[in-house]
């Protein structure tokens, strides 16, 4: 069994490896006990987002099956209960190639466009911007994580006075198409 072989090679619990593989579309790389995979939802991350931190011993947390749908349900519930139209972002902590440390990234989005496109606009010196598209949903996730803290038991943050582009974007809008990916 693949999970037993990987678990043995990395001195990991084969049950955990089996859970990781159950969430995996393809293995991108394995090294130093970490599996970098593409999840069934299309996100490339460590261990398919399966997490043993901040959860009871012997259990693991999985990424939502439909993070955009989950964000949409939370958004509708806030509208229903509070009468407020808000954008909702679901995030997870990710490492980044070529950078140390982790940051939170959007894995689910509802009520906003996750990217602000500056292509065709002018910079402060009047030059036309040709490639600038800001991953505003990821940037908001990083800011929220600073407030929530990794182990502070604060599950959500409210960000006020930020002008997001209303709309029905998806976290999938943040995934670079394979044909434009310089690293695969």
From TrEMBL:
Membrane-spanning residues: none
Occurrences of domain Coenzyme F420:L-glutamate ligase-like (ranges): 5-161
InterPro entries: F420-0_g-glutamyl_ligase, F420-0_gamma-glut_ligase-dom
Key words, A-Z: GTP-binding, Ligase, Magnesium, Manganese, Metal-binding, Nucleotide-binding, Potassium
Gene Ontology MF, one: GTP binding
Matching SUPFAM superfamilies: CofE-like
Protein's name in the database: Coenzyme F420:L-glutamate ligase-like domain-containing protein
């Amino acid at each position: 069994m693949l999970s037993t072989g990987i678990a043995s090679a990395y001195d990991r619990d084969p049950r955990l490896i089996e859970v990781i593989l159950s969430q995996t579309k393809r293995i991108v790389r394995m090294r130093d006990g970490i599996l970098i995979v593409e999840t069934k939802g299309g996100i490339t991350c460590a261990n398919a987002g399966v997490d043993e931190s901040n959860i009871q011993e012997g259990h693991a947390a999985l990424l939502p099956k439909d993070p955009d749908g989950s964000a949409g349900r939370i958004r509708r519930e806030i509208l229903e209960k509070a009468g407020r139209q808000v954008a909702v972002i679901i995030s997870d902590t990710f490492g980044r190639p070529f950078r140390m440390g982790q940051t939170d990234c959007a894995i689910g989005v509802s009520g906003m466009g996750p990217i602000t496109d500056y292509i065709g606009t002018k910079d402060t010196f009047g030059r036309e911007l040709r490639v600038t598209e800001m991953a505003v949903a990821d940037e908001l996730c990083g800011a929220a994580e600073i407030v929530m803290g990794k182990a502070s038991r604060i599950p959500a943050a409210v960000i006020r006075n930020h002008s997001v582009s209303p709309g029905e974007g998806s976290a999938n809008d943040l995934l670079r198409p394979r044909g434009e990916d310089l690293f695969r």
